[in-house]
Write a structure and sequence with these properties.
This protein is an alpha+beta fold. Helix content is 37%, strand content 23%.
Length: 298
């Protein structure tokens, strides 16, 4: 194998690509463009005179030569860690954290983020996005996204932070008119305010694999809209229990899923950094995980 001491940028681009699963994810980590990462890997391939990846429109697959090179250099590069956070003290962490979270959870997390995390790490810039939809981390340039249910696709890594208790709620007037379902089959016949994902209503999923696609005349794209529709009797709604705890306490909404086996949903954080997540981002995720312990219903 030729001397690779002068090809450190290409080696870094190669290892980051393997770890993260794509040129675009590696570019995000390295703060450059996917084409620049591809060119660096191409130069490395020319130097070692071997194909390191089999490229397709769907995925990158390591060749035998690529796997052999990765096994040799990845441990060394991980130890060196070329990021600006090497040997940093916790209170000197710097850089940007751009994150997305459901608007329903913002009421619980934004105050401690702004009050405590921002104070502890004054050199970190925070960019906040509140969206119930699943943002595209690479295309929309997010570092991390917090999601309830589901997980990651492709090169995204998923870390579970907590379980979220779910409930189907309805107004007293709705309950008086339609009654309380005693089975999944009875629930499937009720009118719902439906949560829409990618143009389709999200299915109602119960323990044991039972599920149905809810019917109803109100389609919503946010949890707040679902809550409002339920309060006004326009349909039952599946929501995080913590989001409607006040309404359940004062009787404005009633839990109609007590006889149904409704499983909790995971609160996940997803990112595209592979196994080399920056320290500032890791500390932020640890902070959010710690905050979940004080939220009722999580």
């Amino acid at each position: 194998m030729p001397n690779l001491l002068n090809e450190t940028p290409g080696l870094i681009a190669f290892v980051r690509t393997v770890e993260s699963g794509s040129f675009s994810a590696a570019a995000k980590i390295l703060r450059t463009s996917p084409s620049a990462v591809s060119r660096s890997v191409g130069r490395l391939e020319s130097l070692v005179r071997a194909r390191l990846f089999l490229r397709s429109t769907r995925a990158l697959v390591l060749t035998f030569e690529g796997q052999s090179l990765f096994d040799k250099v990845a441990p060394l590069l991980r130890q060196l860690d070329t990021s600006d956070e090497v040997a940093s003290r916790e209170d000197t962490l710097a850089g940007r954290i751009r994150f997305s979270m459901p608007s329903d959870l913002a009421r619980y997390f934004l105050t401690p983020i702004f009050r405590d995390f921002a104070s502890a790490f004054p050199a970190i810039k925070l960019e906040v996005g509140l969206a119930d939809r699943q943002v595209d981390l690479n295309r929309e340039d997010y570092d991390v996204a917090f999601r309830v249910g589901g997980g990651g696709q492709g090169e995204l890594r998923v870390r579970k932070l907590a379980n979220v208790n779910m409930v189907i709620v309805a107004s007293p007037a709705y309950l008086e008119k339609h009654g309380k379902p005693r089975s999944v089959d009875e629930a499937s016949a009720l009118p719902f305010a439906r949560y829409i994902v990618r143009g389709h209503p999200s299915p109602m999923v119960f323990a044991g694999g039972k599920q149905f696609s809810p019917q109803g005349r109100v389609d919503c794209y946010t949890g707040q809209a679902l809550r409002a529709a339920a309060l006004h009797g326009l349909g039952a709604a599946l929501l995080m229990k913590c989001v409607v705890q006040d309404e359940l306490n004062d009787g404005r909404l009633i839990d109609i899923s007590t006889e149904l086996d409704l499983p909790p949903q995971p609160l996940n954080v997803v990112h595209a950094f592979g196994s080399m997540i920056p320290l500032r981002v890791r500390r932020f995720c640890d902070f959010i995980a710690d905050q979940t312990k004080s939220i009722p219903g999580l």
